Amino acid sequence: MKKRLLLAVFSLFVLQVNAQKLLVTPYVLGLVDDYNGRNWIKEDPEESTVVDKFHNTEIKLVTFLDSLITAENKKTYDKILFTNVKWEKPDCYYCQDFRRIYAKRLVEQMNEAYSFKWKDQVDAKQQKIYQGVLKPKAFETNQEKCSFLAGAFVRYGVFEEDQYTFLLANTNSKYDAIIRELKALKCNIKDFSQKGEEPVIQKVSFVPTRELKAYLDKQERIRVDILRRKNKLATDRKKEQPGSDLFSTQENNQN
């Protein structure tokens, strides 16, 4: 009887641990840039495979993403191959502080969650830039929803005085998707708002369910490390260049 009880407890523990495992594609969909929508230049062999750019202060996030993809590749023959290179862009002073991740297979998986349209925007090579919005039913299972929200939280999350908050700007669909998935998971949304004009500041404060909280809390160490590094760099830069704000949402996305 005692052995059966121990086995049942162990089985429940294993199920809980497995349920909290992040799924790569939804996680990345949560963290990638959505300022004015997800841009995709599908005619360009290189640009079409860009996952996102990451600042030097996000080194722990890049390392974690690397480990996540490596672990996923061990379970499937359809492996995700990716490269991590310094971002080179003409006349861009701060681009040297960023790296870009390219992964053709991962971008293909991500694009399945978007609806893309061309809105007369082109790049310097006159190639069409398509803007993507997340589909309303992009995430089906709770594990997918939690993985998406965990990815969003590590980059756009705030945790103060036991209050969980997402703070975004000018997102085309991520703000709506966050609210939609929080509701689907039956989280208690305390407040949500969109204020300002350019950029529009979007805020969602909520109380997560126990299931979602486990996902979010596992991202806290990375989130805090990014914040600490950004604050230190911003302080150092202000000493060198008074009045500059490297991490203001608008400037960061224009670069």
Tell me the overall shape: globular
- Taking Cα atoms only, what radius of gyration do you get, to the nearest Å? 19 Å
| Protein structure class | alpha+beta
Are there runs of 5+ residues with pLDDT below 50, and where?
Answer: 3-18, 249-255
Between the first and last Cα atoms, what is the distance in angstroms?
Answer: 64 Å
Give a written overview of the molecule.
The structure is a single chain. By secondary structure, this protein is an alpha+beta fold. It has helices spanning 2-19, 24-31, 59-73, 104-111, 142-156, 174-184, 210-218, 220-240, 249-254; strands spanning 38-40, 50-55, 83-86, 98-102, 114-122, 128-134, 157-160, 163-169, 188-195, 201-207. The strands form three sheets. It has a four-stranded antiparallel sheet. The protein has a three-stranded antiparallel sheet with strand order 1-6-5, with no helix packed on it. Residues 3-18 and 249-255 have low confidence and may be disordered.
Topology:
Blueprint: H1 2-19, H2 24-31, E1 38-40, E2 50-55, H3 59-73, E3 83-86, E4 98-102, H4 104-111, E5 114-122, E6 128-134, H5 142-156, E7 157-160, E8 163-169, H6 174-184, E9 188-195, E10 201-207, H7 210-218, H8 220-240, H9 249-254
Antiparallel strand pairs: 1-6, 2-4, 3-4, 5-6, 7-8, 8-10, 9-10
Helix pairs in contact: 2-5, 3-8, 5-7
